[in-house]
Amino acid sequence: MEEELSAAVELVDSHAHLEARHFAADREEVIARAIAAGVMRIVNAGASLPASEASITLAEAHETIYPAVGIHPHDAKTLSETTWVALQALARRPDVVAIGEIGLDFFYNLSAREQQVDAFRRQLALARALDKPVIIHDRDAHAETLAILRELGPYRGVLHCFSGDAAMAEAVLDLGYHIGVGGPVTFRNARVLPDIVRRLPLDRLLLETDAPYLAPQPHRGQRNEPAYVRYVAERVAELRAMSLAEIAQATTANAVVLFRLDHRPTKRG
Where are the alpha helices (DSSP H) in the chain? Predict the structure, then answer.
């Protein structure tokens, strides 16, 4: 597999969860495989307060990992005042590159919708106060997510694992956001997303895995990992009739600029 993925290109996985229990047995090997595949930067998104803390700890041990912190809509019910104070402290750290994963999930509804909306709004406001981009989760809540973003006005961030239609893509682009594309673009039954990817402005496109979830077609149904972002890049290159090197260069530059990956302090802690 390492030979298959290796290439003289540099990629960014703009969304992973390497602190997850799925990697407990071989996390170091997973990170090594990513580097061997040319994935030199990984944005590791927090989905709860403990996951955000773990993301920071992981980034402190690995120069290739950049932490983001946030409360996922599934965990919005955990956002007490105590949790909020702790999250704000993490978010202020200079090595934290984004606020996320935040947003709305009306598919599972693991937190009440009112709790999700409240947590989303509070974290969007926190990001603006700290001048950090946001990483947005939106599942079966397209209208509600877009309404909140429109109400707040233009900002910067990414609609991760984008699942909306072309009209929503145009709307979030108009608001200044990037669109994150992962394993689903490689699925054989993908219809809407490939067409959106063909039409996206290249400077608004990010590649991601969402590891350990949503592995691309060659590994669909298995655990995902950052090395597999190469498959996403290859599919995007095919859809846009570009070379892998061109897609890698553009999407890496996009991630570096959005998350300010070249401006984080070298000394962490």
Answer: 2-5, 27-36, 49-61, 81-91, 113-130, 142-152, 166-174, 192-199, 229-240, 244-259
Report the alpha-carbon distance of residue 19 to residue 64 in Å, rounded: 14
Q: What is the Cα–Cα distance from 97 to 151, expressed in whole angstroms?
A: 24
DSSP secondary-structure letter at 162? -
Structural domains of the chain, count = 1
Helix (H, G, I), strand (E, B) or coil at 38: coil
Strand order in the sheet with 134-139: 11-16, 39-44, 65-69, 98-105, 134-139, 157-159, 178-181, 205-207
- Closest among 100, 119, 209, 104 to 157, alpha carbons compared: 100
- Cβ atoms of 146 and 171 within 8 Å: the answer is yes
pLDDT tens per residue across all 269 residues of the chain: 343 444 579 999 999 999 999 999 999 999 999 999 999 999 999 999 999 999 999 999 999 999 999 999 999 999 999 999 999 999 999 999 999 999 999 999 999 999 999 999 999 999 999 999 999 999 999 999 999 999 999 999 999 999 999 999 999 999 999 999 999 999 999 999 999 999 999 999 999 999 999 999 999 999 999 999 999 999 999 999 999 999 999 999 999 999 999 975 543 43
Whether pTM exceeds 0.90: yes
Task: Specify whether the CB–CB gap between 148 and 121 falls below 8 A.
Answer: yes
Q: Is residue 40 part of a domain?
A: yes
Instruction: Return the CATH number at 210.
Output: 3.20.20.140
Domain range for 239 is: 2-259
Place of tokens 């990037």: 178
Tell me, yes or no, whether 196 lies in a domain.
yes
CB 41 within 8 Å of CB 13: yes
- Tokens coding 139: 């599942």
